[in-house]
Amino acid sequence: MGSTRRVGRGAGSRSRPLVTLGVALVATSVLAACGSETGKTINVYYAPEENFQTVVDNCNEQANGRYQIVYNKLPRDADGQREQMVRRLAAEDDEMDVLGLDVTWVAEFAEAGWAAEWTGKNKAEAEEGVLPGPLETAMWQDKLYAATKNTNIQLMWYDERLTPEPPETWDEVIAAAKRLKQQGKPYQVVFTGAQYEGLVSMYNSITESAGGQILSDDGLSVEMDEGAVRALEILHELTTAGITAPGLTNAQEDETRLSFEAKGSQAAFQLNWPFVYPAMQEGNPERAEHMKWTRFPEATAGEPSRSTIGGYNLAVSSYSKHQPEAFEAALCLRSAENQKFSAVSDGVPPTIESVYNDPEPIDPSKPAGDDNPNMETAYPMKDTILDALKEPGVRPLTPAYQNVSTVISTVLSPPSSIDPQATAERLRSEITDALESKGVLP
Amino acid sequence: MTTEVAASTADPDTGAPAGKKQLSEGKRAERRLGLLLCAPAALVMLAVTAWPVIYSVWLSLQRYDLRFPGQTEFIGLENYITVLSSPYWWTSFGVTMGLTAVSVALEFVLGFALALIMHRTIVARGLIRTVALIPYGIVTVVAAFSWRYAFTPDTGYLAQLLAPEAALLTERMPAFGIIVLAEVWKTTPFMALLLMAGLALVPDDLVKAASVDGASPWQRFIKVIVPVMKPAILVALLFRMLDAFRIFDNIFVLTNGAQQTGSVSVSTYNNLIQGLNLGIGSTMSVLIFITVAIIAFIFVKGFGTAAPGSDDGGRR
Asked: Where are the membrane-spanning stretches (chain B) (predicted)?
């Protein structure tokens, strides 16, 4: 752009204003066209992440002038991110090259023909060493449509002073909470119970833990089997036993975190993403010392729980004019080294298994510590995360995920009004409509 | 604008069958020039309004989901059956109707009072009129955000004043009330402005004559002022109802349709923009278009509302 403007000004000094304008306009368009051919710009559209610009700068250095990655920040909320990309892709906008997709959007973008398929060498590199759960979220119909950037998984956080041995199953959680309540101690089980994606994640975790499925494997029809009904029963029991917080139906991730973090908190158990750990150190250092973590509760004793995974994948737009460079840029942005950097500086768990066991701190020349974190210091719970990631609960993969999720969160809200059999029946019929994009969205 | 009005009155004349042949050569040339002059404007209007309307109708007759481009097909009226048999649609339709009725009624009463005040003021007339119009001059989204922050628990001043313990925007009826409040606050000045124009139509002599005949102030208002103002009142109500029925921005900012406070426009947005379902979404927008047309029809045919300035033309 700098050179463009200079040319425009140069012309202006020689001619009359109106002509100047014309010349400048022509010059701008001609130069813009030339510019994109010589110094290629790769536009990355990704959610706001505090230190992601550093990753972009690293990759630009590595590209050595062959292309220049520009980080375009999408809105903070997931719906806003999806909306902006979808609107532009529907209009076949060729200015978007790399797309940061929430793990639930890959199927949708692939089916609509907006995400380019990964093949050959790029595919091999994108799959190398990636944990199977996160990798599954980047595939649609056995083809790879994105490279995993980071993952996320819900754990159960508890206070070791209240329950030195954490409960392992939902039955135990409910019993422990009731007992604590009787003893007059903090007792609440807090989770994301508001009518939004968080409630769907919670329901999906319990369903998967109970060995159930909401959708069939191909994502084309409704399953809603015994496990899914069992999950409705657990959710109902949990929310009618008098052990949830009064603000449950308003609680998204942050409200949930705060209700555990606040001074005088009545919460004993929290189901949430690992971001609560660093927040707790700052928000309530006194309780942070006693906050421990364990895997998501089991639905059936002895059957390992399966907790919902989140995170982001990087896809390449089908309309991108620089696809080879876009693939290369995407691979760099999520390389093992950059995943480690993002993990310790922005708290987003890596998808590449080896990163978890990498002892090297950010600055390898100095010893690891608070100022120079490595995976061990930034992620004391990394072993639990890794364990859980090996038995993940992937949310249903379907191009109509947005519809399915809207229907589930509407039908399950508020969770205390669930009537397992009737609710399951309603879910079956409304999800069927949603899958065929027939029904009306609430 | 003036050429357009001239053209639209000229149009039926030139288009009428023989019998008006007595037009002189000069007059006809003038007409032709008039038509030619407004043709570009008319064409642009057609391109930017008629075409999208027709295209929406066409889309509403198809199964068309951007995520399943391969499955696009013509399905006749099936989308209409889906939408009209959906409880979600009727919930938002009920919400919209309720919001329209309540907010227009309140706006009418308050707007009338404001109009009378503005009409009768003797001192600082300009200042009072300007001040009264300030809410209407504020961008709706900006105003909606200030209402939202005012009602945010812990930090909002109205939340602390009215209900320190509750989150009003997350409960259905309170949220409904806040949406009405935001609407009424915002558009009452508009209503007042239209009604004030109507008040100016009432001849002072008429009111004085009534008072000489012994009519009380209330009788003068109900029996003299209101009947004379009827056209202005109907126009004001019509404008506001059409507007209120399409309410979107206030709801989008205040609740985003949660707790069943979404209007039909919010539903349309959710299906069209978020759900990417062009078929269902277009069906909804066509239904909104039809509803608005029905409201306008009832006002024009039922109550004889006429466009301002064409007093005799309303019942043609």
From this structure: 33-58, 88-118, 130-150, 221-242, 278-300
